[in-house]
């Protein structure tokens, strides 16, 4: 039996992992879903002090004293989750990146975007988010028509739930840089590519210790294809 620690990306709480978590538990594993400070059901805790170090602490606390951990990071969880993994390599069996990858030292989440999208996010933070928050995207049918790639595979019911439960993201998680040690632990790593191909991933991530696989769907495979995602997680 392994312990799967499931970390949501931006805007959502542990609820996004409910079906995947159930399937992993049915297979006999322990599952811990991480509730991150300032987002999801903890949105009321989104003070200006909430940043990458806060989420690193949330994730390390969730791992606790567990051994043989499979740490699963979705999207915006990559910076804090990778830093937590760098601190606890002896507890981890594997890190799984779901439609994301580890960032190099000093790179912020916002820098992954093209310049025009970066400028728009900064505008949203300063105006709609009053300098503290990045508002959640609409997650409606119009949003899906504008961005059919990342919102692929989601039903109208999925979008309704995402829209209802999404919360604004503390801005420091968007703007705060990744911090990596000089010597990166050699923890085995898997990347599950949903909105891009393995070939594209190999251009970003290289080196020993990696396995890669594709799950063609949108950016939230835990909602659009939970059974297939759980099967991939069990396979690692």
UniProtKB/TrEMBL annotation:
Q: Show the GO MF annotations.
A: catalytic activity
Region described as Disordered: 117-149
Composition bias, kind Basic and acidic residues: at what positions? Answer: 119-131
Q: Which residues form the AB hydrolase-1 domain?
A: 5-231
Q: Which InterPro entries match?
A: AB_hydrolase_1 (IPR000073), AB_hydrolase_fold (IPR029058), Sec-Metab_Biosynth_Hydrolase (IPR052897)
One Pfam entry name: Abhydrolase_6
Gene3D superfamilies per the UniProt record, alphabetical: alpha/beta hydrolase
Write down the SUPFAM superfamilies for this protein, in alphabetical order.
Answer: alpha/beta-Hydrolases (SSF53474)
Name of the protein: Esterase
């Amino acid at each position: 039996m392994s312990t799967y620690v499931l970390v949501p990306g931006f805007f959502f709480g542990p609820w996004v992992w409910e079906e995947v978590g159930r399937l992993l538990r049915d297979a006999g594993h322990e599952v811990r879903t991480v509730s991150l400070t300032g987002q999801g059901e903890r949105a009321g805790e989104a003070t200006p002090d909430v940043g990458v170090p806060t989420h690193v602490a949330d994730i390390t606390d969730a791992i606790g004293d567990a051994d043989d951990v499979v740490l699963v990071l979705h999207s915006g969880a990559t910076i804090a989750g990778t830093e937590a993994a760098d601190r606890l390599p002896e507890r981890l069996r594997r890190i799984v990146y779901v439609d994301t990858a580890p960032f190099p030292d000093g790179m912020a989440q916002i820098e992954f975007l093209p310049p025009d999208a970066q400028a728009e996010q900064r505008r949203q933070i300063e105006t709609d988010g009053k300098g503290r928050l990045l508002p959640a995207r609409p997650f409606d049918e119009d949003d899906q028509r504008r961005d059919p790639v990342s919102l692929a595979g989601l039903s109208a019911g999925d979008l309704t739930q995402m829209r209802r439960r999404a919360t604004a993201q503390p801005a420091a998680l968007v703007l705060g840089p990744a911090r990596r040690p000089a010597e990166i632990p050699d923890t085995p790593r898997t990347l599950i590519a949903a909105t891009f191909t393995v070939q594209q991933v190999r251009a970003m991530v290289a080196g020993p210790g990696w396995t890669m696989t594709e799950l063609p769907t949108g950016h939230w495979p835990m909602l659009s294809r939970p059974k297939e995602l759980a099967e991939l997680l069990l396979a690692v």
